[in-house]
Amino acid sequence: MKVLIVGGGIIGLLSALELSQAGCNVTILDKQDFGQAASWAGGGILSPMYPWRYPDAVNQLARFGKSMYQQWQPLLQQATGLDIEINPSGMLILDEADFNTGLGWAAHDHDLQQSAQLLDDSALNSINPRLNPRITQGLWFPQLANIRNPRLLKTLITFLKQQPNVRMQPFTTVQRFEVKNNSIRAVVDEKGTHWQADQYVIATGAWSGLLSEQFEWHIPVKPIQGQMILFKAPAQWLPSMVMHQGIYLIPRLDGHIVCGSSTDDLGFNTDVNSEIGLKLQQTAYQLIPGLQDMPIAHAWAGLRPGVPDGVPYIGKAPPGQSQQLNNLWLNCGHFRNGLVMAPASARLLKQQILGETLMVDEAAYLPANRLS
Ligand SMILES: Cc1cc2nc3c(=O)[nH]c(=O)nc-3n(C[C@H](O)[C@H](O)[C@H](O)COP(=O)(O)OP(=O)(O)OC[C@H]3O[C@@H](n4cnc5c(N)ncnc54)[C@H](O)[C@@H]3O)c2cc1C
């Protein structure tokens, strides 16, 4: 089976990995180079930030994130020599208002990945001695990890380029789908080139709404900007992730610390705003005073594929009144949790396309149930 995937962020790349490993011939097109958009800009926390604030449909996919990346890691590393750098650092959540809800959620979730403990100041200090000593309580999630997403993308791109049944075509903008007799016959790029396959996948992140404009239904994805700053610290300087009031610090294995993030509806704008950067910096210093001695290495902004409920669209395109497309699939709208939901989203899509047994109930993600 030939599958054409539009969009080479984490969702398109992992979909390509799943489908190519299952024997499909896969082509991926991207309007820029692969893995440069939201998937590069994100933080890589392998959990929703406050999981109890999200619908079950988000957590149902997110809970596979860490373990599926761990399962892919040996194959990818052996073939590419690159490490996707999963850092099992654990996460401290410092928002008092969430302590009881978070504890209750972890107790009832029966998910080992989400066990939680409420710590006092001495326990906090032994977990993370860099924490501001004025902080006296914190909710500790020891199993939570982060992944170094730029390394993950580089590894996936390198691996996919090695596969004889994968073709990767960067700098190719898909402008429309050619439709005949209820089927997509080709995608047409900006040069007028027609790209043909048996099945077609929209995995275009924040741009997915634009690609649905020619159809009778609309994908309500819109870009939501998030800004980040990066500190350079010595390796293992910050022992755990830390989060307070939606601002987080994520230590990488080599010592870099990612701090984010903002959420702003600014259209397709990735300009860095110095006021937002300053706010991130000040919050980081309040949480971890020693960061004032660490240089800021970089600042950037990315566009999350925002959807109203945070639940992605995974499955066959919905039927229109005059047209029932039988070979167009969506895997988009992952909003704030695309890196953690990506492995399960990609596998679910592969299972749907190939008619296999599904790993989870698909109902919550089906475009036919949600788009009009
Ligand atoms: C600041 C920030 C922090 C984040 N932190 C986390 C986190 O800690 N954990 C987590 O799980 N998630 C996080 N996210 C969310 C996560 O990054 C996204 O949900 C995820 O990357 C979306 O992946 P994607 O592949 O759908 O989109 P993208 O990575 O944006 O990829 C879409 C691709 O489609 C291409 N494209 C678009 N239109 C076309 C076209 N017409 N033709 C060809 N190609 C096209 C684009 O060029 C792009 O490469 C964060 C996001 C941001 C911005």
From TrEMBL:
<comment type="pathway">
    <text>Cofactor biosynthesis; thiamine diphosphate biosynthesis.</text>
</comment>
<dbReference type="InterPro" id="IPR036188">
    <property type="entry name" value="FAD/NAD-bd_sf"/>
</dbReference>
<dbReference type="GO" id="GO:0005737">
    <property type="term" value="C:cytoplasm"/>
</dbReference>
<dbReference type="InterPro" id="IPR012727">
    <property type="entry name" value="Gly_oxidase_ThiO"/>
</dbReference>
<keyword id="KW-0560">Oxidoreductase</keyword>
<keyword id="KW-0784">Thiamine biosynthesis</keyword>
<dbReference type="Pfam" id="PF01266">
    <property type="entry name" value="DAO"/>
</dbReference>
<feature type="domain" description="FAD dependent oxidoreductase">
    <location>
        <begin position="2"/>
        <end position="350"/>
    </location>
</feature>
<dbReference type="GO" id="GO:0009228">
    <property type="term" value="P:thiamine biosynthetic process"/>
</dbReference>
<dbReference type="GO" id="GO:0050660">
    <property type="term" value="F:flavin adenine dinucleotide binding"/>
</dbReference>
<dbReference type="GO" id="GO:0043799">
    <property type="term" value="F:glycine oxidase activity"/>
</dbReference>
<dbReference type="InterPro" id="IPR006076">
    <property type="entry name" value="FAD-dep_OxRdtase"/>
</dbReference>
<protein>
    <submittedName>
        <fullName>Glycine oxidase ThiO</fullName>
        <ecNumber>1.4.3.19</ecNumber>
    </submittedName>
</protein>
<dbReference type="GO" id="GO:0009229">
    <property type="term" value="P:thiamine diphosphate biosynthetic process"/>
</dbReference>
